[in-house]
């Protein structure tokens, strides 16, 4: 990946890259919705393992070693990649769905009702 792609990566690019990755390895036969969901949940578990037993940690993880943060980045990436792949295989346009969901959330939780109020 070139440096210029890093700041502007889109879900569409990730979708295409994941599809190519699977096709090149003949892994498409394994990428059923169920298998991808289980893989996604497994990767969420790997993220959880990193936080396990650490207690609450401050935002930005200032006391973590670079190596640990790099590992976290890898596992969060696995979660995103499986989410993108699962959406693709299910025929869901994730970019469109997530924008719609944000709109629905804004309607459900209007600013005037929540700002300066504790939940
Ligand atoms: Mg992983």
UniProtKB/TrEMBL annotation:
Organism per entry: Cucurbita maxima
Record gene name: LOC111497558
Gene3D superfamilies the UniProt entry points to: MazG-like (1.10.287.1080)
Function, as annotated: Hydrolyzes deoxynucleoside triphosphates (dNTPs) to the corresponding nucleoside monophosphates. Has a strong preference for dCTP and its analogs including 5-iodo-dCTP and 5-methyl-dCTP for which it may even have a higher efficiency. May protect DNA or RNA against the incorporation of these genotoxic nucleotide analogs through their catabolism.
Lineage: Eukaryota, Viridiplantae, Streptophyta, Embryophyta, Tracheophyta
GO biological process, one term: dCTP catabolic process
Molecular-function GO term, any one: dCTP diphosphatase activity
Catalytic activity reported: dCTP + H2O = dCMP + diphosphate + H(+)
Cofactor(s) it depends on: Mg(2+)
Main subcellular location of this protein, as a coarse class: cytoplasm
Protein name, as recorded: dCTP pyrophosphatase 1
Source organism superkingdom: Eukaryota
UniProt-listed Enzyme Commission number(s): 3.6.1.12
Any one Pfam family match given in the protein's UniProt record, by short name: MazG-like
